[in-house]
Amino acid sequence: MVASTGSGEREGWSSRSAFILAAVGAAVGLGNVWRFPTLAGESGGGAFVLFYVACVFLLGLPLVISEIFIGRTGQDDAVGSIRKVAKQSGASGSWSLFGFLGVLAAFLILSFYSVVAGWVLYYVGVMGADFLGAIMAGDPFRGALLGESQEAVSGRMGELFANPMLLLSMHFAFMGLTLFIVARGIGSGIEAAATILMPMFFVLLVGITVYGAFVGDMTEALAFLFTPDWSKLTPQVMNTALGQALFSLSLGVAGLITYGSYIKGPSGLGSTSVTIAFADTGVALLSGLMIFPIVFAVGLDPAAGPTLVFQTLPFAFQTMPAGALIGLLFFVLILVAAVTSSISLLEVPVAWGIGEMGWSRRTSSLVFGGGAFLIGIACLLGYNVWSDVRLLGFWPLFAETDILDTVDGFTGKVMLPLGAFFTAIFVGWKADRRLVKEMTGLSGVWLSLWRFLIAWLCPLAVGTILITGLFPQILG
Ligand code: TRP
After folding, report:
1. Alpha carbons 298 and 238: distance in angstroms, whole number
2. What is the pLDDT of residues 381-430, one digit of tens each?
3. pTM (global) more than 0.90
4. Contacts of 442 (CB under 8 A, 6+ apart)
5. Which terminal residue of the chain has fewer beta carbons within 10 Å of its beta carbon, N or C?
6. 32 in ligand 1 pocket by Cβ < 6 Å?
7. Residue boundaries of the structural domains of the chain
8. Is the C-beta atom of 324 inside 6 A of ligand 1?
9. Ligand 1 contact via 412 beta carbon (within 6 Å)
10. b/e map of 58-69 (b: 16 or more CB within 10 Å)?
11. CA-closest residue to ligand 1 atom 14
């Protein structure tokens, strides 16, 4: 164990596999099981999926290596780590400003992430009560929400949205859980949670996918997800795919800088990062293969949008064998994925509070968990009492989006690509080459390939996406 400088020993992961588990937990979240199937469905399947996979490996993976490199080298919160790498490289300390941008972005993302996770929590309750009813009726393997019409099933979402107190209590419960885990620290909080929850997640994911293969329409799902119709690959779709790759890998907001800073021993960054990228992409694709066979079997619309998972699927579970049980497990799976990601989002500002402000972990968790909770309240009120509010209404891109979508859109389309862009420029052009070589453990052709991707392809591609994302009129 290498003790850090300063007061006392800084926390750390107990092993390399603990870090990988936590990082995969951060990557695998609502982005994989909710956002990815939603976007793939809306964007017409195959072409989007293949372009997404290309983005992950050509742009995402080099950035994963870069973020972990900064954290592993700096051994400090995001801002402090960048400052240290800059210093060791003879670059200006002002580069740490993009770390601060990341801290702010993570904090903002957490605020609406918890609201969405609150919807999941509500559905766990709905399906849980329904399954309990099935057991009491002596028929545990019956379908879900029997006797409710499709309108009634999908209407549940509308009822939830119209009820601020219900939304608020779910948001409160989820944020409380996140805060509780993060306040316990790296080892007995985040690492312990990932060690329990991630295996559980994988068992559920594989189990429900196998179930879907038997009762659903796997052939049609495979064709939909993997047969590209290249005419559907518009600039907007490419834009969406890259944004989704960054979001899903937790890039651009210093998440992996922060997690990487708790690695103590030798890192082997190349293989570690490849594992994270493969696991995250594998889960996204498997989620597609879990959801779409069920959607197609019942003849539902794959392009239903963000409500696909919440309104469409519960109805599909009505007609399927053991739908009540599988429906419950399905929402438990999403909840588990959301928890291991939300703790990574909270850890970014919490580490900043500890490292830069000198707060205790407990104070920092309360400040940022509480703060994100309050901002989240504005997001959820945007569905009811504040449904007319347009936060960035002066900006054509956000002229029609409610509060939650505005925070989501602004962080995802502006802050995240900006963070990724600066990370690429900083590591590709400013960081000391010997330091990079030593700390990443990359050599030979892999080092050259990675250098090319991080110094040239990433800034160009991410920069283009950023500009065209912000000014869609350029694309006509
Ligand atoms: N990657 C997570 C998901 O797919 C979300 C997430 C967690 C995230 N930490 C992040 C996104 C940091 C951006 C930055 O759900």
Report:
1. 30
2. 999 999 998 989 888 888 888 999 899 989 988 999 999 999 999 999 99
3. yes
4. 65, 269, 270, 436, 450
5. C
6. yes
7. 16-389
8. no
9. no
10. ebbbbbbbbbbb
11. 250
